[in-house]
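Many introductory courses stop at the sequence. We go one step further.
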Amino acid sequence: MTLLAPRVAVSSVSAQISRRKCLQSIVSGCLPLLFSDKASAGAQVEEPLIDSVRTALSSAVANHAPPIPKFRDTESRLAYLRWLGAMSDRLKKKNPEWQIRKEFLQTVWYESKRAGLDVTLVLGLIQVESNFRKFAVSNVGARGYMQVMPFWTRVIGDGDPGKLFYMQTNLRFGCVILRHYLDRERGDVFMGLGRYNGSRGKAPYPNAVMAASQYWNFGG
């Protein structure tokens, strides 16, 4: 019996090392996307939408109420404030102005929750897509923080692509579109992210977003 313990320990350590090497391999392969100054959006594909889906998406982007978080109790509010403080510190190098960081993070939190998305995933996506640049434009014309393709404003918006440079409008469209793609893929994050980027089924973009998300993990 005493001989088994060292074997288990070695096996456990070996597994941990293997997982660490796997993660390092993924991150290394994603470095060009994670730290690029260029907007890295692919070409979101304009797909035919049935009337019910088009109506639902149009409704989802239409209501631009102020992004003011609401909480069911004091503990929930305190948890949000702790998250806001931690994320603000991590975002400081990207934007040194506290008020702008606060408004951005508050809006990301609000729009993520509104769309039923993990805010950590959304922040990772924004990092990869635009590196937190409000006026980023990709070589295929995607715009803003979440690199939304202009055709979406015609399909489910008011037809004005210039509004994609407004912070809340861009985050609203991006979150609604990501939610739509995840629903299309039955909750498969890997496939949903690929569809968002126009690279469905290919690993580099989803891996880059998921690797970037780790930095924005409040529990990490």
